UniProtKB/TrEMBL annotation:
<dbReference type="InterPro" id="IPR007369">
    <property type="entry name" value="Peptidase_A22B_SPP"/>
</dbReference>
<dbReference type="GO" id="GO:0042500">
    <property type="term" value="F:aspartic endopeptidase activity, intramembrane cleaving"/>
</dbReference>
<dbReference type="GO" id="GO:0010008">
    <property type="term" value="C:endosome membrane"/>
</dbReference>
<dbReference type="Pfam" id="PF02225">
    <property type="entry name" value="PA"/>
</dbReference>
<keyword id="KW-0325">Glycoprotein</keyword>
<keyword id="KW-0326">Glycosidase</keyword>
<feature type="signal peptide">
    <location>
        <begin position="1"/>
        <end position="24"/>
    </location>
</feature>
<keyword id="KW-0812">Transmembrane</keyword>
<dbReference type="InterPro" id="IPR003137">
    <property type="entry name" value="PA_domain"/>
</dbReference>
<dbReference type="GO" id="GO:0005765">
    <property type="term" value="C:lysosomal membrane"/>
</dbReference>
<dbReference type="InterPro" id="IPR046450">
    <property type="entry name" value="PA_dom_sf"/>
</dbReference>
<comment type="function">
    <text>Intramembrane-cleaving aspartic protease (I-CLiP) that cleaves type II membrane signal peptides in the hydrophobic plane of the membrane.</text>
</comment>
<dbReference type="GO" id="GO:0098553">
    <property type="term" value="C:lumenal side of endoplasmic reticulum membrane"/>
</dbReference>
<protein>
    <submittedName>
        <fullName>Mannosyl-oligosaccharide 1,2-alpha-mannosidase</fullName>
        <ecNumber>3.2.1.113</ecNumber>
    </submittedName>
</protein>
<dbReference type="GO" id="GO:0004571">
    <property type="term" value="F:mannosyl-oligosaccharide 1,2-alpha-mannosidase activity"/>
</dbReference>
<keyword id="KW-1133">Transmembrane helix</keyword>
<keyword id="KW-0378">Hydrolase</keyword>
């Protein structure tokens, strides 16, 4: 690849990273201020710590919805709350179980994600966990509901994660969850790496122009010399 193209490519990646960081910040401020965070189309991976009868178990992985409030990055700011299945399980109509003070669990399907979130929120749930109907995590987007006003966090977990929770709860044990959004070190490293790459390519580009210019001055320029924009 020509150095010019490489620079443009890296610049693009940097812009992409910078814009995604900016979006994250904006959304985080919106959530912290209690303002309704509308659909922000950002789907960070989350950690779902869990306890069964007070004993900590392997955490599950979740994915945040494109709407709802932002989970804290710091585990110390996250709340450990009891989990409870909504009834009906799809959370498409108000739950006959009281959801207040709990993290509501609902099965995916039969109505929009935003409908489930509205119903869980109105039922007093502190958060909503949508259990996927298949393995893996799905990106839960918004319908074009401009009046969307979800102020609780909404996340999804895989089908097997839901089954594990159900198994514990079916045995009459108390399941508690704690949801948070840790900043993974790998992201920081890749930003540093990209920054180094872009610095490197600026240096390379100026070296190239030095070389080609001196070649031109020497009169030894040829068709194969790389062109720097
Ligand atoms: C947006 O909402 C309107 C009415 O609520 C509906 O008619 C339309 O199909 C929706 N558009 C999309 C892209 O969902
Ligand atoms: C959004 O919901 C909050 C309570 O959850 C309420 O105070 C606020 O007025 C609502 N905003 C809109 C635009 O409906
Ligand atoms: C939980 O497990 C029981 C027993 O296997 C099953 O009947 C029930 O449908 C499950 N509930 C959910 C929400 O997966």
């Amino acid at each position: 690849m020509a150095p010019g193209l490489l620079t443009i490519f890296q610049f693009g990646i940097c812009l992409f990273f910078m814009s995604s960081i900016a979006v994250g910040d904006e959304a985080a401020h919106g959530g912290a201020g209690g303002a309704p965070a509308a659909c922000r189309n950002d789907f960070p991976l989350l950690k779902v710590n869990r306890w069964v009868n007070g004993a900590e178990k392997e955490p599950l992985v979740g994915l945040s919805a494109g709407f709802g409030s932002i989970l804290p990055e710091d585990i110390k700011q996250a709340q450990r709350l009891p989990a409870m299945f909504s009834k009906p399980l799809n959370c498409c109509s108000p739950s006959s179980f009281k959801l207040s003070g709990s993290i509501a669990l609902a099965l995916r399907g039969e109505c929009d994600f935003t409908t489930k979130a509205k119903i869980a929120q109105e039922g007093g749930a502190a958060a909503l966990v949508v259990i996927n109907t298949q393995e893996g995590l799905t990106e839960m987007g918004c319908s074009n509901d401009t009046a969307l006003n979800i102020s609780i966090p909404v996340i999804t977990i895989s089908e097997s994660g839901g089954e594990e929770l159900n198994k514990s709860m079916a045995d009459g044990m108390k399941v508690e969850l704690l949801l948070y959004s840790p900043t993974r070190p790998i992201v920081d490293y890749s930003v540093v790496f990209l920054w180094l790459m872009s610095i490197g390519s600026i240096v390379t580009a100026s070296l190239w122009s030095e070389i080609t210019e001196s070649k031109q001055r020497d009169g030894s320029s040829n068709e194969l010399s790389p062109k720097v924009p």
